[in-house]
Amino acid sequence: MADDVNVKGMDESDPTIALTDRGLAYGDGLFETVLLRDGAARLWDEHCERLSQGARRLGFEPPSREWLDALPERAPAGEQVLKIMLTRGSGGRGYRPPLPAEPRCYWQFMPFSPMPARWDSGVNVRLCRLRLARQPALAGIKHLNRLENVLARQEWQEDAIAEGILLNDCDQLVEATAMNLAWHDQGQWWTPALTECGVEGTLRRALVERGHLTVTEHAPLSRLLNSQTACLFNSVQGLWPIVTCCDPDNQHLLAQWPIDESVRRLQREAHTLLGHVFNLPTS
């Protein structure tokens, strides 16, 4: 499969994207955002597996692992973020996809910009008006059609609000606009099931598999608001404790949480997986 992938690197001398590419026309593809340290990719197995599973879910063959493994080796030294975009390529007629597909893979390296103040002091979030549609066929994968996330993130411009909490169309907890969500209650950490919508983050998967998070289904907003503490996390920025959550109009405080030792323990587990070096307070 490695020889069958049409590669167009975004950092090459000709960063052209074909106007006929189905990723551009329909969001027909997938992407991964990977944290690198001197060419070593963090949670690389999880990223490669999610990309491969997503491609097969969409109905085309992914690049081989050998081909993907060569990408981080191209990275500049230091802390970088590798963005990979895998599309079905061009062809087909309208929405009808080509058979067989000739996928294209685009990639780009960007300097990593950590936000240690958010690791330390936590973040303020808001409840989004937008509700995520339930679509099990796409649930979990990181596909290119992220219009729901764009519309949700468009709801506020205040820098003091770091993220928005997203519910599905049954008003059940799903995720944040660009991060996964967890809350601590009854002596353990909980995170929403993502079988109907949402993105299964690679850090979320790693924490679940290691027994640090318990997946719960059909969780109403009250589960979060009545919890002892809460946090957001992804595989690039790490884990941010949540300190407040306001309503969509930013007029009423819905909940407020301490940054306690339970969130610091989970943060240390997450940051160990990502290689983040930061002296976290013990709370």
Automatic annotation (TrEMBL):
Family stated for the protein in its record: Belongs to the class-IV pyridoxal-phosphate-dependent aminotransferase family.
Keywords for the protein's UniProt record, in alphabetical order: Folate biosynthesis, Lyase, Pyridoxal phosphate
Enzyme class: lyase
Subunit note: Homodimer.
Gene Ontology MF terms in the entry: 4-amino-4-deoxychorismate lyase activity; branched-chain-amino-acid transaminase activity; pyridoxal phosphate binding
Pathway(s) of this molecule: Amino-acid biosynthesis; L-valine biosynthesis; L-valine from pyruvate: step 4/4; Cofactor biosynthesis; tetrahydrofolate biosynthesis; 4-aminobenzoate from chorismate: step 2/2; Amino-acid biosynthesis; L-leucine biosynthesis; L-leucine from 3-methyl-2-oxobutanoate: step 4/4; Amino-acid biosynthesis; L-isoleucine biosynthesis; L-isoleucine from 2-oxobutanoate: step 4/4
Protein name per its UniProtKB record: Aminodeoxychorismate lyase
One Gene Ontology term from the biological process aspect of the record: 4-aminobenzoate biosynthetic process
Protein function: Acts on leucine, isoleucine and valine.
Protein EC: 4.1.3.38
Gene3D superfamilies: 3.30.470.10, D-amino Acid Aminotransferase, subunit A, domain 2
Keyword match Transmembrane: no
Pfam families, per the entry: Aminotran_4
